[in-house]
Amino acid sequence: MDLLTILQVLDSTMRLAVPLLLACLAGLYSERAGIFDIGLEGKMLAAAFLSAAVAYTSGSAWVGLGAGIVASLALSAVHGLASITFRGNQLISGVAINFLAAGLTVVVAQSWFGQGGRTPQLAGAARFEPITLPFAEAIRDVAFIGPVYYELISGHTALVYIALLFVPLTWWVMYRTRFGLRLRAVGENPAAVDTAGISVVGLRYVAVLICGVLCGIAGAYLATALQASFVKDMSAGRGFIALAALIFAKWRPWYVLYACLLFGFLQAMALRPDVIESVLSFKVNAQLLDVLPYILTVIILAGFVGKAIPPRAGGEPYVKER
Amino acid sequence: MDAMPKWADVVLIPLISLILAAILSALVILAIGESPVEALNLMIEGALGSTYGWGYTLYYATNFIFTGLAVSVAFHARMFNIGGEGQAMLGGLGVALICLYIPWPHWSLALFGAAIAAALFGAAWAAIPAFLQAKRGSHIVITTIMFNFIAAALLNYLLIGALKPTGSMEPATGKFPEATHLPSFQDMFSFGETALFRGAPANVSFFVAIIACFAVWALIWKTKLGYEIRSFGHSETAAKYAGISPTKIIMVSMLISGGLAGMMAINNVQGEAERLVLNAVEGAGFIGIAVALMGRSHPFGVFLAAILFGFLYQGGAELALWTKIPREMIVVIQALVILFTGALDDMVRAPLERMFLAMRRKGDA
């Protein structure tokens, strides 16, 4: 196997890891604040649809991104209402949001475009185009560094770099700001936060809304950068894989990046059975490759990779004076 | 003393939630430029206007009774089984193997064998997530969802490989032998010249579903195991203190749950298709969640909610046929029902409780 093949696989690892990474960070904000969010999947799907639809009509991928975030935020608001204000069951609320997105996207897509629940193909500025970083062309022929820079680091869409920037940003917010400390506290011991005179409800709403923004970017990335249109159920369980990655990473930003890269790598390998065949020198069944990320998710959840302790107040609605 | 009389809790709250979901669904239909009134008329006409429509409504309802009961039993132990879809797929595999490879002399024996196989396969598919939840604390919601994906891939693999008859291009098993044919409502209820339920897929498994309702009721409220399941669901620490093993309850409730979801296959695989096709479950496993929430996890409530969703499903199919409203509208309605009856329960409950308290105070004065 030559360098180019490896770089190609790593390149698609990167591209496939990005939606997982964004969704996983979204889940991190929400769960660190004590709100479980099974609805990452649905929010991504809704954002994917609306971003593709608006990008198609407006001709601008950035406007589409904005629309995707709005769609995701709307569902986040529903989740916040159900799980914070009305103290409902967070799991059930998330499941409802997933179905709502799965149904509404197809119903509305059919009504707007009449193409069997998909959006028209996006082209030109309606899609995020790869960015060639400075000097990529110039040093392309330099041994090793050239191809690595050109193939792997350069040539992604803007959203990929934005997603990567969110990792240190999230780390900084969580561990170096007052807001982050309070956010983590509200997921561990909301009563203490309340006693200190800080609004538990307010903090949790902020966390849920940040989660909405990140899911919105993840969804928009799926439809306007990774692919060039919305198709039915295109999130394909990524929201759930992101949740597993979050547990794997034990709710810590940098580990989230590594976990998502691992899942991205598995998905990239599923697309390249020829590479697997040449490495393992036998043919691996295609269906098996497809379900490998899901099987790995189960294995990770089974805790064969160390004990993961979730935020203590996770999933519990906060009631004053219990 | 409860803030509300029992009937308000059992009837009024689900009814108000349902009306809220219906209003929002009507708004969605309006927004895509169709008339909700016309849509409702079409649905009633298509699902309840003829014995043919009823035959489809009750066929879908049979599926939803099984999956709804499955989710309910798990709910009683405070387990959230979203894996009904995958468990029903595996149940279908069990039915297919039993019907294809065992020469049954009579349909009643075949039904018996198929039901057991379906339950065993469904239960087996629920066993791993249940075990991981009980022993390793892995989140049952995520593992059961993953097992849905894995089940779909497994069936895909088998149906384009080992189970496909040679020479066939379609990803499906061969047709089951004639002897495994379950009597449909048309076979049972048509007398002489008048054929009722003509061509509709409702069949004898509807009655098996009703028996299952009684069995689940008896299990949950009339047996020691049911008592243990309910007390575990109410308070895990209290149940532990009372000497109830969490591992046992999680395993047993999930196995029963998976078995019930798997048994759905006697209806859709043996009763309707008479062979195993890809995507035979058609989302019924997920609808079970809405059915269980709506039916307040009580078998009678599940029965009524399943009929309602059967109506919505068949009505939705009619809508897709005659209007521009796609079939996915039913997923939207299902989501709204889950949202209002499950997650936004307090939104409906709190004002009602206040109202009843105010009324009582007035009565006392």
Explain how this protein is built.
- The complex is a heterodimer of chains A (322) and B (365).
- Chain A is an all-alpha fold and 322 residues long.
- Chain A has one domain (3-128, 141-301): ABC transporter involved in vitamin B12 uptake, BtuC.
- Chain A is 70% helix and 0% strand.
- Chain A has 13 helices and no strands.
- In chain A, helix 2 (40-58) runs parallel beside helix 4 (90-113), helix 6 (158-176) runs antiparallel to helix 11 and helix 10 packs across helix 11.
- The termini of chain A are far apart.
- With 365 residues, chain B is mainly α.
- In chain B, helix 4 (84-101) packs parallel to helix 6 (140-160), helix 8 packs across helix 9 (224-234) and helix 15 crosses helix 16 (345-364).
- Chain B is globular, with a radius of gyration of 21 Å.
- At the A-B interface, helix 3, helix 4, helix 10 and helix 13 of A face helix 5, helix 6, helix 13, helix 15 and helix 16 of B.
Compact overview of the structure:
The complex is a heterodimer of chains A (322) and B (365). Chain A is an all-alpha fold and 322 residues long.
CATH level-1 class of the domain at 59-307 in chain B? Mainly Alpha
Low-confidence stretches of chain A: none
CATH domain fold name of chain A:
ABC transporter involved in vitamin B12 uptake, BtuC
Report the largest inter-chain contact: A-B, 46 and 49 residues
Radius of gyration of chain B: 21 Å
Element string of chain B (H = helix, E = strand): HHHHHHHHHHHHHHHH
- Helix and strand content put the structural class of chain B at mainly alpha
CATH topology of the domain at 59-307 in chain B: ABC transporter involved in vitamin B12 uptake, BtuC
Poorly predicted regions of chain B are none
**CA(first)-CA(last) distance of chain A:** 62 Å
Principal-axis shape of chain A: globular
